[in-house]
Structures are given as structure tokens and as C-alpha cells.
Amino acid sequence: MKRKAFRPAPRPISFKPTRRDLRRGMVLVPLLILAGALFDPALIPPFGPLAKREVVAATFTPCGPGRGVACVIDGDTFKLGDRNIRIVGIDAPELAEPRCPQEAALARRSADRLIALLDQGPFDMVAHRLQTQDRYGRELMVLERGGDSIGSQLIDEGLAHRYIGSKRSWC
């Protein structure tokens, strides 16, 4: 009579990470975060082959009746001819539909300050080649003058928040 070879019961599947898995994760996670940041112009401005630059020299006015070719919609959006342009990385108060009187006042100040900043002379609009428009069809641009970000200046002056995917209340 032939005996069957003894085979132990298979071990149950373990979801506990091993040291090898942890080491692999310690290398992989930072690399994925860095790769994501390279493609998000709000975190790292576009550079090298990812950047598409254009120089703008125009006189800006508030948007509305009798507006010029270049006008400011609110503190983070403006029109340049037929193009709607959204400044990447900032969120300014809404001028069209403010939620409270404080937001309305800050929105007016923010839009006026953006007009003043844009009218100081030529500036660079830098687009990220991989992310050119938002879901509303506006062109996404980083604005720079002399290597300094115009959006960061609005944030520093308290007229805008840093935008990283969600809005905060102005009230």
C-alpha cells in the first residue's frame, strides 16, 4: 500500500507588512509624492520643458460695461481678450456672489490690488504643459514678475488664501 506524502495545511494569508514591504514603502511613497508635486503647479511652479511662458504687457480694468481688452473678474481670475485666466495656487474672495459683507469688502480690495499689481508693468504668465485648464475652461497660469509670484504677494497681503483643492470661508 502506497502512503501519501504528508502535506501541512497552508498558512492563512497574512496582511501584516514585512520589513521588506516597509522598506519598499519608505522609498516609494516619497517618490510618488514628489512626482505628484511636479505635476501640480500650485505646489511647485512649472519649470524647464513643463513650462510654457508668455509675456503680458496690458492695462487692466475691472470687468463690466465698457471694459477694455484686459479686465479683472476677481482677485484670482482675469480676462485677456477672449481668454479667461485663473491664477494657480490662490483662492481670492468671490466678487460676484459674496456670502457676507466682509467677503464683499475683501473681494473688492483683492480685485483692486490685482489690477494694481498687473498694471505695474510686463509680467510672465507660466502655464504647466500637462495641466492647462480647470474644469470651468479657464486657463491655469502662474504669474511672475522678476521671479516673484504675484499670487504669493496677494497671499502675503491677506487678500487671498493658498488654494490646494478646497476653499475656506472668508466670513
UniProtKB/TrEMBL annotation:
InterPro entries: SNase_OB-fold_sf, Staphylococal_nuclease_OB-fold. Residues 69-160 form the TNase-like domain. It comes from the Bacteria. PROSITE patterns: TNASE_3. This is Thermonuclease family protein.
